[in-house]
Structures are given as structure tokens and as C-alpha cells.
Amino acid sequence: MNHKGTVTLETERLILRRFTMDDVTDAYNNWLSDPDVAMYMQWDAHTDVNQTQEWVSRYYVENYEKNNFYRWAIALKKDNKVIGSVGFNIEREYDSVADVSYALCKRFWNKGIMSEALIAVVAYAFNEVKINRLEAFHAVANPSSGKVLQKSGMKYEGHARQKYRNRLRGFEDCDLYSILADDYFGKNKAEISIVPYERKYHDDMLFCFLATKDAIGKYAPDPQWSKPTLKDDLIDIEKYYIGQGDVFYLAIDKRDRVVGMIGTQTTSPMELWLKRLFIKPDLKGKGIGSKLLSAIVDYAAGKGVTEIHTRFASWYREAAVFYPAKGFVEIEPDDYLRHMVKRLR
Q1: Lowest mean pLDDT among 45-59, 212-226, 328-342
Q2: Long-range Cβ pairs for the range 290-294 (8 Å, 24+)
Q3: 1 part of a folded domain
Q4: Does some domain include residue 246?
Q5: Alpha-carbon span 43 to 59, nearest angstrom
Q6: Which domain holds residue 238?
Q7: Which of 144, 10, 16, 154 is nearest to 86 (CA)?
Q8: What is the chain's alpha carbon radius of gyration, rounded to the nearest angstrom?
């Protein structure tokens, strides 16, 4: 392994950084004193801020001098206040195995925050630390934690009876998950990352779009579809997406080339529309569309959006299969266009 310690990581909404003693009060108020957060943990809810002061010092701050210590404070970019923790412990150096754990303030549950943080940590573990295996377990009575692990790419491995003892609930049965370097880098899936649009990718993005539209047009009933054209929104992403308060994500392969894209158009505080979901033709079926859509779902959940809409031509068979598999349902049937919606609440 290539140990680098707890370095600052950033995601769209979060800063993952080292704890400091200035975080004690927020850590106590936001999750360490909350019995609901501690319910399935191996630690008890703190009853005094002095407990938290000792906790932050002993379990975080005093360990950061070690280059094999990985424990991040989860802070919102908007105010840098800590709302949770995430990290992994090296279980067996020789075997290159680490155990993942996390906790989050209850106010931020079901907003995609924990998944966003864990995905960044998983990426760091494999790309930088060169870990071979990350593993985690959660109490069977807490299935929401399993969903977080799944979103990070982990696979269910099995069930462990009475894996650990909780002081309030007694012995807990657990489900086990893991992800290997082979899984992460993808022997069967494209090795891609989802990033916000940057100008340096603009020309490559247009080439990807034109190739995709050409492939779609080959089985379209209207021959005009075989002649892809560029609309104003793709020519000026900054103006039509970013400048309007929306997002535009790109799928980037290991050669730093654009292989997919997706954008949003917000029509109300509770509703947004998908725009320009396209995948390079020779890479379809490798999970790229799912990753792009997942990024939008997390973004929407973080904004409090309750409905994600999409509309596509009725003859577009791939879309007709893809969207229902991702939880979209059809509304307003039409002979020419299909309108689908995914409700987040």
C-alpha cells in the first residue's frame, strides 16, 4: 500500500478534512450525543461535551501524525461545520484490507450526503492508497446503512450472526459487504469518473455527442435523426446550464476522454428535468449511464428536489428499458414522446 494519511478531499457539496479541537461542540451537538445515531453503533451516545472533547482528541487529532490513519470529518462546503465522520481502519497491512465506518447527523439522512462522502473515500482508498479490499458490516436492523454501502460500489457477501455487541440492543446480526480493487477498476465495466463540466473537455464532449446521436439515428424512423446537429445549449454549457444554476456532468475514462454526459434543467424548487444523457456508443451497457444518473439523483436529493423528469422519442428503445429499471414511471402517454418521472419521496 501507498500510505498518505488523511488528506483533504472535496466533493460537490462536502469537504472531507481532518478533525480539529474546534469541532468538538459541533460533533457533540450534531451526532455524537444523538441516541438515534448511536443506536446501531459500538459506542454510546455522549452525555457530556467533555466526552466528545476526549473522543475527538484521542481517536482523531492525536492520530493524524500517522500516515496510515484515515478518518475524515464531513463538513458542508457552505459553512465548514462538521456533520459526521467517515473513514477506514487498516485491518491487515500484509493483506491490504481495510474496514469502513461512518456516522452522520440525523438532519442530513436521506439526502445523499453519506453516499457522496463514502464514494470519495472509496476512490481515495483505491486510487491513492492502493488498497486491495475494503469491507464493511451493518446491523441487519439498519438496512439504510446497507444502501449507502451499495451506492459506494460494495457488494453483499453474506450474513454474520451476533457480529458485535451493542450495549442497549445486545448482540447484533450483521450483513457483510466489500469491494475489491478489481471491482473498482472494473474488469467488466468501464473505468470512468463522473466530474462537473470543465471547458477543457468541451471539444471532446461535442465529438462524443455527435457520435452518439449518429448511432441513435441509424434506427430512428425519421431520417433527420441520422444528421446530428449541435444545439445552442451544448455550444455554451456555461450559459445554458451552469449559469442557470443547474449542473452538467461528464463521464471521463482513464485516458481523460469524454465518454458520456448528462445535465439538468430546474423548473421549480421541487422538480428538475434530465437533459442530454448520452453515452459513447461502444461503451453502452458498462454502467456509465447508471453512474451519471446516480450523480444527478444525489444532486437532486441534496437540493430537496422531489421529482426528476425525462422525455424521449417513443421509438428510442434503449431509453424505454433504461429508465424504468432506474425507478422511473411513465406519465402522460403520447404516440410520439414518452414522459417519465422518478419520485424521490
Answers
A1: 212-226
A2: 290/326, 291/192, 291/194, 291/251, 292/194, 292/249, 292/251, 292/260, 292/261, 292/262, 293/262, 293/326, 294/151
A3: no
A4: yes
A5: 12
A6: 192-343
A7: 16
A8: 22
SS3 24: helix
Residue 189 to residue 113: CA distance in whole angstroms: 25
- What is the CATH classification number for the domain harbouring 92? 3.40.630.30
Instruction: Out of 141, 164, 185, pick the residue that ends a domain.
Output: 185
Specify whether 228 is located in the same domain as 277.
yes
- Are 33 and 174 contained in the same domain? yes
Among 194, 212, 153, which Cα is nearest to 296's? 194
**Same domain for 203 and 159:** no
Are residues 247 and 229 part of one domain? yes
Long-range pairs of 217-224 with CB within 8 A, sequence gap ≥ 24: 219/315, 219/317, 220/313, 220/315, 221/315
- Is there a single domain that holds both residue 17 and residue 163? yes
- Cβ-based neighbour number of residue 2 at 10 Å: 9
Say if residues 248 and 261 touch (Cβ distance below 8 Å). yes
The reply to whether 133 falls in a domain is: yes
Tens digit of each residue's pLDDT (9 = 90 or more) over 104-146: 999 999 988 999 899 889 988 988 899 999 999 998 888 889 8
Residue 171, H or E segment: strand 170-180
Task: Report yes or no: 64 and 58 within 8 Å, Cβ to Cβ.
Answer: no
| Domain count along the chain | 2
**What's the distance, Cα to Cα, between the start and end of the chain in Å?**
42
Prediction pTM value: 0.56
Helix, strand, or coil (residue 251): strand
Contact 301, 110 (CB under 8 A): yes
**Nine-digit cell at 38?**
448511536
Band (73; pLDDT cuts 50, 70, 90): very high
Shared-domain flag, residues 307 and 163: no
91: in domain: yes
Q: In the listed set 185, 209, 232, which residue is the last one of a domain according to the structure? A: 185
- Grid cell at residue 330: 411513465
